[in-house]
Design a protein that fits this description.
Elements lengths: L2 H6 L4 E5 L4 E5 L6 E4 H6 L4 H4 L17 E7 L3 E6 L7 E3 H9 L1 H15 L21
Antiparallel strand pairs: 1-2, 2-3, 4-5, 5-6
Length: 139
């Protein structure tokens, strides 16, 4: 990749819009990318969400109203997002953010399909609810 091509992957500005719970990435040579906090949270590149290998992904549920609390630069290659649900271990590289922006529609539809298949929802549980998942024991 040429230096100019690599530079086009790097946002020139990142804005956190707290009221709309969106992150706006502005680029010198491409259209801005606007991603919701919920979308970024459920597609976090962290091991907590992605697992440690293929097939170990953890479906994120109840994140409809999640918000980004804080953005932090990570070197010259990424940002770290802190969410109000306590999640703060995802490092979003410039490449990954651009990939999310370019594939947002299909990624979102896949996520909604996985939620439906699992019988889960985007809606958070009431604050006083505790859930314990119990897996059946094979005979």
């Amino acid at each position: 990749m040429h230096k100019q091509e690599a530079a086009s992957l790097v946002p020139t500005e990142i804005k956190l819009h707290r009221k709309s719970a969106t992150l706006e990435l502005t680029y010198a040579e491409r259209e801005p990318v606007i991603l919701s906090a919920e979308f970024l949270r459920v597609h976090s590149p962290s091991a907590e969400v992605r697992g440690h290998g293929r097939g170990q992904e953890v479906l994120q549920t109840g994140k409809r109203y999640v918000a980004i609390k804080h953005i932090e630069s990570v070197g010259n290659y990424a940002i770290k997002l802190s969410f109000d649900d306590g999640h703060d271990s995802g490092i979003y590289s410039w490449d990954y953010l651009l990939e999310l922006g370019e594939n947002e529609g299909s990624l979102w539809q896949d996520y909604l399909a996985k939620l439906q298949q699992a019988g889960q929802t985007r809606e958070p549980l009431p604050a006083d609810t505790q859930v314990i998942q119990i897996k059946p024991v094979a005979d």
